[in-house]
Amino acid sequence: MNHYDVIIIGAGAGGGTVAYSLAPTGKRILILERGGYLPNEDDNWNPDAIFQGRKYQVEEKWLDRDNNSFRPQAFYNVGGNTKVYGAALQRMREADFGEIKHQAGISPAWEFSYQDLEPYYTRAESIFKIHGNKGEDITEPPMSAEYPFPALPHEPRMQEVADSLERLGLHPHHLTLAVDRNVEDPENSKCIRCATCDPYPCKIDAKLDAQVACIDPATEYNNVELKINTVVTRLITDDSGARVTAVEVEIGGNQEQYTADTFILSCGSINSAALLLKSGNERHPDGLANSSGMVGRNLMLHNHSSIVAIAGKPNPTKFQKTLGFNDFYFGSPEHDYPLGQVQMTGKSKWNRLALFAPDSVPQSTLEYMAEHAVDWWLTSEDLPEPDNRVTLKDGKIKVDFTRNNLKAHNDFVDMWQGYLRKADFFMFMVAQVPLSAVWHQVGTCKFGSDPKTTVLDLNCRTHDVENLYVVDASFFPSMGAVNPTLTIVANALRVCDHLKDSLG
Ligand SMILES: Cc1cc2nc3c(=O)[nH]c(=O)nc-3n(C[C@H](O)[C@H](O)[C@H](O)COP(=O)(O)OP(=O)(O)OC[C@H]3O[C@@H](n4cnc5c(N)ncnc54)[C@H](O)[C@@H]3O)c2cc1C
Ligand code: SF4
Q1: Which H or E element spans position 421?
Q2: 206 close to 190: Cβ distance less than 8 angstroms
Q3: Which of 500, 503, 485, 501 is nearest to 127 (CA)?
Q4: Strand 254-265 to strand 468-470: parallel, antiparallel, or no bridges (unpaired)?
Q5: Count of CB atoms situated within 10 Å of the CB of 167
């Protein structure tokens, strides 16, 4: 029998959380995931395989605004993009939920406040076993609980860097991380603090990604079924267009259909919008649930730059992603507009630097640089614009996107290098990430109470189709400058409270 109470499309952060939360209800749940299980193998931690070989990245090509084809840095697996994420899970700041004036425009308010999401952030931090020290981050929003586990301490060189920037008046904090590390008893710990965490998969499943944290526990329930390598190609409605009745899938070269009472779309912002647009019919001529014309619009990606900063001192740190700064999140004495957040990224290896360096730079130079480098990651908010949108062209996904709010980001990158110079760094490799790095994709089906201007209501149910929800990152009306996944998870838990009531 192919009929279910709930079908979840996509086993990433949003879909995984819904499966985890609904599994104990006993409802018959089917999860459809286009990828397979990412194998635990040596290449998980092999920089050549990850950076040069681009192993695990999707093969498909998307189009940019000029119809140039590019290979997105997206990952289709059980666990979605979280299989390779940096596991830095952060709450949005309290003020991010209100309207904020930026250098290039307005970041719009959400229709509920931080306090409405706060209990779900607390639950999300428990499910993802977050490590952090409450009270360190100067922009930390009010929290009703401590972090479940203490922060991962800095390795000696990172502690030195933190101390020297603190002497310049800055406020270092420990990043909040989703790794299964026993800080008090490291020998007795699943996570071994290796040098290949961000952006690698974890070979020993010690990273709390959406598979480990959500899908694995959910599929232990007999009422939850997961079909992998199953691409959902279309959502089918009844004649009135008011309800989805079935999904059409491709599995092993065959087409099949599955029916359900409730459908939860969670393919990631870009793919969810594309699937809705593909699923148009007579009742939904511009795409399913698109009477507002807003499906695919208001895509946001964050403005990101990496700064590889070289100092005279070697940096033998293995696990570098422990340090962050939010001193300039809302501006600086010289900038009356938000700049963004500073965090570390994975420790660079020479092969990663080779991706940014001219071919003429010899390997020995790159090796020297990597040995002395400290690797920073700067993220600034970008703003929702209806013209930044996902469409379909000849069946392909087109990401028609122009970056905005870049002056603030560039100011931020310049200013941070100024601080680093004062902390004895003397050479910088700065790279702004390209469009293909769609890691922080959000927006495309924003939520709100007005069906004329939003796709989803505040429960993330589509305004137009009564049994269709979207629970991935598509709902964000604005995104702050923090990493998005904890907010995706917290929101999905909030939606599940509503679903549990409505499923009966
Ligand atoms: C390298 C990297 C580093 C990152 N680091 C961080 C970090 O440190 N902190 C943080 O908060 N975030 C980080 N992110 C972002 C994070 O991974 C995403 O925000 C998060 O995974 C988005 O959740 P989602 O549910 O919207 O989509 P996803 O988790 O991507 O899930 C979507 C799922 O849907 C499946 N799917 C798509 N289309 C279909 C279809 N048609 N049929 C069936 N299944 C389908 C996909 O295969 C995928 O499994 C990082 C991402 C990357 C790539
Ligand atoms: S640091 Fe820990 S969680 Fe990250 S990849 Fe290594 S073992 Fe896994």
Answers
A1: helix 406-422
A2: yes
A3: 485
A4: parallel
A5: 10
Q: Which ligand is nearest to the CA of 194?
A: 2
Cβ atoms within 10 Å, residue 103: 19
Q: Ligand 2 pocket test: which of 56, 82, 192, 319 has the largest number of ligand atoms within 8 Å of its C-beta? A: 192
Which residue ranges have their beta carbon within 6 Å of ligand 1?
9-14, 32-35, 73, 75-77, 80-82, 84-89, 199, 210, 231-232, 266-269, 271, 275, 439-440, 472-473, 483-485, 488
Q: Return the percentage of the chain with pLDDT > 70, whole number.
A: 100
What is the reported pTM? 0.98
124-181 residue pLDDT tens:
999 999 999 999 999 999 999 999 999 999 999 999 999 999 999 999 999 999 999 9
What confidence score (pLDDT) does residue 298 get? 98
Instruction: List, for residues 391-428, the tens digit of each pLDDT value.
Output: 999 999 999 999 999 999 999 999 999 999 999 999 99
d(CA 49, CA 345): 18
Q: CB of 403 within 8 A of CB of 381?
A: no
Mean pLDDT of the region 364-372: 93
Tell me the C-alpha distance between 295 and 291, whole Å: 9
CATH class of the structural domain 3-442+462-503? alpha beta
For ligand 2, which residues put their CB under 6 angstroms from it? 179, 191-194, 196-197, 202, 204, 206-207, 319
Q: Which ligand 2 atom is at minimum distance from the Cα of 319?
A: 1
Residue 2's pLDDT band, with cuts at 50, 70 and 90, is: confident
C-alpha dihedral, 170 to 171 to 175 to 176, nearest 10°: -150
